[in-house]
Amino acid sequence: MILIPIRHMFVVAAIAHIIWIYMLDTPKQVYFCPLNREGLAKDWNDENCYWSTSYAEAREKFVSLGNRLREQLILSQDENVFLDLVDVQSITYDTAGNAEEYKLLQAIDASTLQTISPEKDTVDAILLTMRVPDDRVDIIHSSGTHGVEGYLGSAVQIRFLHELFLRNEALLQNKGRQKASESGKVRKILFIHAVNPFGMRHHRRTNENNVDLNRNVLAPDRVKTVIERDPNCFGYLDMDPLLNPINVSPISHQGGNNSPEQSSSNTIHAFMKEVWAIASVIGSIVKVITSTGYTNAKRAAVSAQYHKKAGVFYGGNGKWENSIVAVQQAIDEFAGFGLSSNADAQSKVFWIDVHTGLGKYGSYTLIEKEIPDSTLWNSQLNSVIASLVEKQASSSKAVSSGYEQTIGFVNGDVLCPSPRCFAVSQEFGTRPGVIVILALILENKGCNEGKHEFAYLTSNAFQPQRLSWRRTTLRGGNEMLLTALNFQPR
């Protein structure tokens, strides 16, 4: 009887899984999803229209829906049709500019349409003011903090905006009056699209400076301590040869006048080289996990490091990245929530930040900060969150384990301070953890060398294309958003 080492079995299984992913888990159709008013009303017959294949497509859909809602609002006022939509505003932040020049394009009222600039990497925000029948919390919903993970969050936002468009369109066509909401009360809903537009465009988890934005939002009084702490305090340096390998290079596709036989030989050679690179890293991952334990290895990686700019899970040099400044401006100035200044202390904000990668395939886990112990919130919020967490409690602990020392979250206490703001990160499962970390390691290695042959790994690790995954995750994202929208503080 031949005994195969467990490590080798893991490697073979992982390679088989990768082959299955790229042979079977690919888009099968192209969908027709026009963005004019008539097309949005009649031709978006499939929920795949909510999804996008590129950052530019996602941004165009998001911005266009904001424009159509503004047009509907103007028409409703002209024709005296009552909508629950009171106001629509939008703003664009060009993250390539200086912090003082972020407001490149903005539409400050319903009469101005937002401009679409496909070539630019921008953080876009739409602010809806809606009539409500009773007291409701204000909402922040953000997508794309981790770039390549942004396609699901974008789809959730686009779905909500499209469904609001359809409700408005039905009333406009029928000259009807919407039931609700003559209480005089309103609430704000702020959608922030593509917090990390560079990463979303290039299928990277980090931004143009290789900064993980969900490790970057440090409070000023903590910067010095974090930057000067022992780089190996959680074991990152011990795992550095695995996380940032120097002996694994992505394949290089070279041009030239090769004969068919040479081309075939080069293709086979490149494929085998790629398989070897993947197998060697998988083998190293399995070796580390078996020797240190999964949670310890995970903690060493995800707790972030602030000393190696080219390394994975780099949190920056202590200064906020442009996208983070843009998010703060969108929340405090554009939406007027004033969370940083603690203005309007009686208002309450519920923030959902959508991620993909960890957990059971297609299911979601809520990683929430401690519920504020304040009269602004109440035990009802505990029961609402508990009811959602209960459905995925079996995977919740596994997903959140290892993050105990991680700081700098986009929707953490710095930008979402207690007790006024309550935040959850909604994490949707995609691939096994070994596949996810493999993709991050090899993609980062290739990017540092100016090559992008492994970008397909991060793309498929964080945004599966199977229709079943899309349906399940879109439903889960919508469920969480509706839970926040329906929450009534007492």
Care to describe what's here?
The chain has helices at residues 6-24, 37-42, 55-78, 150-174, 197-202, 223-227, 240-243, 260-292, 294-302, 322-334, 379-390, 393-400, 433-448, 455-462, 467-486; strands spanning 85-94, 103-107, 122-132, 138-142, 185-193, 349-361, 364-368, 421-429. With 490 residues, it is an alpha/beta fold. The protein has an 8-stranded mixed beta sheet, with helices on both faces. Helix 4 links the parallel strand 4 (138-142) and strand 5 (185-193). Helix 1 packs across helix 8 (260-292) and helix 3 (55-78) packs parallel to helix 4 (150-174). 44% of the residues are buried.
Helical content, roughly?
Answer: 40-55%
Q: What's the gyration radius in Å?
A: 23 Å
Which structural class matches the secondary elements?
A: alpha/beta
SS strand fraction: 5-15%
Average of pLDDT: 81
User: Quick one: biggest sheet?
Assistant: 8 strands, mixed
Low-confidence segments: 102-110, 248-267
**Overall geometric form:** globular
With strands numbered from the N-terminus, the spatial order across the biggest sheet is 2-1-3-5-4-6-8-7
What's the total number of strands? 8
- N to C succession of SSEs: HHHEEEEHEHHHHHHEEHHEHHH
Distance between the termini: 68 Å
